[in-house]
Amino acid sequence: MKDMTKDILAGVAGRRRNGSSDALGPNSEIGRKLKQYYDELVSDDVPDRFAQLLSQLEQAEPAQKKD
Question: How many domains does the chain divide into?
Answer without folding.
Answer: 1
